[in-house]
C-alpha cells in the first residue's frame, strides 16, 4: 500500500477535527477500494473504531459517567443515538435511523460517503459504521456485535447494519459463563 500517497491526502489531525474536505476523502476511499487485498476493509474498520473512541472522548465527563451508569435498556438506546451522531459527522449528507427491538437494532444509513460508487461492488463498503457500532457497545459495557446486511455500494437502496446488543444480564448465559467485560479490553469510560 502506498502510505505516503494517502498521507498526502489525509492526516490524523484532519480526520479527528473534521477538517478534511469531501473531495480528498472521496478520492482516497476510491483509491483504497482499488488496492489489492484487505486494505480497504482494514482501514475503514480501524477508522470506525477511532471515530467511536474520539466521539466518546469528546463527551463531557459527567455525560460519559451518566451513560455508563444507566440501566442497560437505556444505555442501548443512548449508544444508538451516539452511532447516529457518528454517521451525521462522517459526511454532512449522511443520516441514520435506528430501530431497536428485543436486543437487536437495525441501523439504516442513507447517503453513506463510503458506499458512493459508480458501479456496484462485490463486498459491502460500510464496515466503518459496523466497526463504530461494535466499538461503542464495547465502550459502554454492552455485549454487542454489528454486521452489514445491506449496502448501497453493492446495489442496495440504503445501507443497513444489524446490531445484536445484549447487555450482560441479557446474554442468556449463567453468570460464571458470561463474557469478559470490555473493561479488560481497554475501556475509555471513566
Name the CATH class: Alpha Beta
Low-pLDDT stretches:
170-190
Distance between the termini: 37 Å
Strand content: 15-25%
Number of strands: 4
Query: What radius of gyration results from the CA coordinates?
Result: 17 Å
CATH topology: Muramoyl-pentapeptide Carboxypeptidase, domain 2
Helix content: 40-55%
Tally of discrete structural domains? 1
The largest pleated sheet is described as: 4 strands, antiparallel
Per CATH, the architecture is 2-Layer Sandwich
Chain-averaged pLDDT: 80
Report what the structure shows.
It contains seven helices and four strands, in the order ααααααββαββ. With 190 residues, the protein is α+β, with helices and mostly antiparallel strands. The chain has one domain: Muramoyl-pentapeptide Carboxypeptidase, domain 2, CATH 3.30.1380. Helix 4 crosses helix 7 and helix 6 packs antiparallel against helix 7 (127-139). The termini are far apart. 29% of the residues are buried.
Keywords, separated by commas or semicolons:
7 helices; 190 residues; alpha+beta; disordered C terminus; 4-stranded antiparallel β-sheet; Muramoyl-pentapeptide Carboxypeptidase, domain 2
Give the arrangement of secondary structure elements:
Elements: H1 3-9, H2 12-17, H3 22-34, H4 39-58, H5 61-69, H6 72-90, E1 95-101, E2 104-110, H7 127-139, E3 143-150, E4 159-166
Antiparallel strand pairs: 1-2, 2-4, 3-4
Helix pairs in contact: 4-7, 6-7
Amino acid at each position: 500500500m502506498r502510505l505516503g500517497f494517502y498521507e498526502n491526502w489525509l492526516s490524523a489531525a484532519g480526520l479527528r477535527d473534521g477538517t478534511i474536505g469531501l473531495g480528498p476523502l472521496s478520492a482516497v476511499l476510491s483509491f483504497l477500494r482499488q488496492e489489492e487485498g484487505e486494505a480497504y476493509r482494514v482501514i475503514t474498520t480501524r477508522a470506525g473504531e477511532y471515530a467511536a473512541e474520539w466521539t466518546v472522548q469528546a463527551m463531557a465527563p459527567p455525560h460519559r459517567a451518566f451513560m455508563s451508569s444507566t440501566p442497560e435498556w437505556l444505555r442501548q438506546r443512548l449508544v444508538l443515538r451516539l452511532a447516529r451522531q457518528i454517521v451525521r459527522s462522517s459526511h454532512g449528507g449522511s443520516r441514520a435511523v435506528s430501530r431497536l427491538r428485543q436486543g437487536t437494532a437495525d441501523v439504516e444509513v442513507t447517503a453513506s460517503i463510503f458506499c458512493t460508487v459508480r458501479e456496484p461492488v462485490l463486498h459491502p463498503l460500510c464496515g466503518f459504521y459496523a466497526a463504530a457500532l461494535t466499538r461503542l457497545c464495547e465502550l459502554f459495557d454492552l455485549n454487542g456485535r454489528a454486521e452489514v446486511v445491506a449496502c448501497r455500494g453493492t446495489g442496495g437502496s440504503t445501507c443497513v447494519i444489524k446490531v445484536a446488543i445484549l447487555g450482560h444480564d441479557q446474554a442468556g448465559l449463567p453468570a460464571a459463563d458470561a463474557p469478559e467485560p470490555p473493561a479488560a479490553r481497554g475501556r475509555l469510560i471513566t
